Amino acid sequence: MQRRSFIDKTAMAGVLGALAAPAAMAQAGTPAVKWRMSTSWPKSLDTMYGSAEHLCKRVAELTDGKFTIQCFAGGEIVPPPQNMEAVSNGTIEVNHVLASAFVGKNPALAFDTGLPFGLNARQHNAWMQYGGGMEATREMYKKMGITNFVCGNVGVQMGGWYRKQIKSVADLAGLKMRIGGIGGMVMSKLGAVPQQIPAADIYPSLEKGTIDAAEWIGPYDDAKLGLNKVAPFYYSPGWWEGSASITAQVNSKAWDALPAQYKAAFECACNEQTMKMIADYDNRNPEAIKKLVGSGAKLSYFPKPVMEAAFKASNELMNELAASNEDFKAMLPGWLKYRRDQASWFRVAEAELDNFTFANVTK
Amino acid sequence: MQRRSFIDKTAMAGVLGALAAPAAMAQAGTPAVKWRMSTSWPKSLDTMYGSAEHLCKRVAELTDGKFTIQCFAGGEIVPPPQNMEAVSNGTIEVNHVLASAFVGKNPALAFDTGLPFGLNARQHNAWMQYGGGMEATREMYKKMGITNFVCGNVGVQMGGWYRKQIKSVADLAGLKMRIGGIGGMVMSKLGAVPQQIPAADIYPSLEKGTIDAAEWIGPYDDAKLGLNKVAPFYYSPGWWEGSASITAQVNSKAWDALPAQYKAAFECACNEQTMKMIADYDNRNPEAIKKLVGSGAKLSYFPKPVMEAAFKASNELMNELAASNEDFKAMLPGWLKYRRDQASWFRVAEAELDNFTFANVTK
């Protein structure tokens, strides 16, 4: 493996053997590798962009500065909508994205991020790490020349900001809502009119009434946009993703060329951030939701009939996508079984204790 | 990109023909470090012991085999009850334990593992990584010459196996139950009589009626003991820990002596296992709970009055421990506030979507 290739290289290097200790010889053969990572985040999304930076810093620390990944904010070297293609064609070695941003290219990419009423963050990690999810998603990515790694999770997001109350499914009819991807497709089935507009345009569009609602992320990130001033009805939960998992998509040729030690460094650093990013969000969101409510956000749960209609529409959509897309068809049955089994088990212990504790410690 | 890194390597080999490059010289100075890790697990607890092995393997991969940690099952080099002292006095460099096993020495160690009706696994990670928990627990460990790292989590455990049904708090009176630590102290307040017996003796003790009940871990690990045959009433949830976090306790002198690159490798590998161990459990438990129920386990939730009495007794106990222990006193107020804030936020999005989804996908 690694050791053997070092020996070969050392033999070619010749005189080095006389000058340096064995460890030095081995290291002398370790190439300097520089990658560029394009993210989909402005630097102001400091939890996600920050996690990407931590990832790059950790890889450098782990390799004594010999494997370096330069981290770029969204648009600095690649416009976010082209992040996946740029990895696929080798313009950049790696990106840091929500794979669901590219469902226009292949809706099955949503399995890599999260689906409506889907696996929560822990369940998604279980599926990806041990339940066959990694193998299934890599099979899909292989065709694009990409090797995928989970490297973060946002958790359950909020259901967005609305200018008017949503009292029933009927209130969604004709609602112009900034929401993309699979969630937008479900909203469309419910009568809403999904809109794709950049983050910077959300506030003025809501203020003018060009749109009626917008989903963004969760309390910590949402607070930066100040949407409570122009669309005070803040709904929960963001049912369109059971959790939102972040992916590092790596150009497969660049990946295959890495020494084993660098592969271990990258994978370990991604797995670390899978734990750390959501810990960072979980740590920040409680304070943020308090501040938002204190600044006039009117917090509500979606009415049960809206949730039920969304659940029904989501199931219909997933079946339709499976009928028209081979990757979706290949992954859906296993994923549905996994979701059911996970839900059955989580109801036994995790949810039961969570519900009791959450209710009692907030009394 | 890839092409460029090959060019770098060739150029580097040329330079090395004449003189070792700075990176190689630096590496020549990197010492070989060998540590011994004593765990608290028999090898049959393959999820926990397996995670310890993965941790050691990863550290070796990340350091090109120069920092090696030999992993031992419980009792192979140190009896589990002495694992903490062995690190403290430098007999071994590191262990892999539930810190709560040592609450007899200092009850505040329970903050490092989990407390009754405490933080769930995600919340505990948030507290430890970003919410001040690491700093607070390290302050406590400093006095023992130990530096602590989170390196796994079991999640919410089950409430144990009982020979008879628990219909009310009165049914706990005089109940001889195998349960240790803080959970045992609360059970004692509820009238039960906690027993400390080794894992191997649980089955025969329940069979003979020497004890009436026993808690072990969760479905995957419990299934190996076959307790459903001798104590069929299987209760949930294991309220004595909001989650059970695994700790690597490292001898502080050994830690301080590590080169920065090895420190990064150890910390990153611990953080990776914090995500991976619970993913492994979450992946295995659904199948295990089905099998247990299929083999005669009678699954029930603890009755609400029992949960309420346990919650009240837990709060009393925590206040008592704070009154008699400085470390407990120092940590309790911040932890209680963190628990309340986390619970408030988790009720907004996570629990709301979990509850809806879990109920609907298992219909």
Automatic annotation (TrEMBL), chains A, B:
Protein name: ABC transporter substrate-binding protein
GO cellular component: tripartite ATP-independent periplasmic transporter complex
Gene Ontology molecular functions: metal ion binding; organic acid binding
Binding residue positions for substrate: Q157, R178, E215, E241
Signal peptide (residue range): 1-26
Positions bound to Na(+): W216
Protein's GO biological process: organic acid transport; transmembrane transport
Keyword annotations: Metal-binding, Signal
Gene3D superfamilies reported in the protein's UniProt record: Bacterial extracellular solute-binding protein, family 7, Periplasmic binding protein-like II
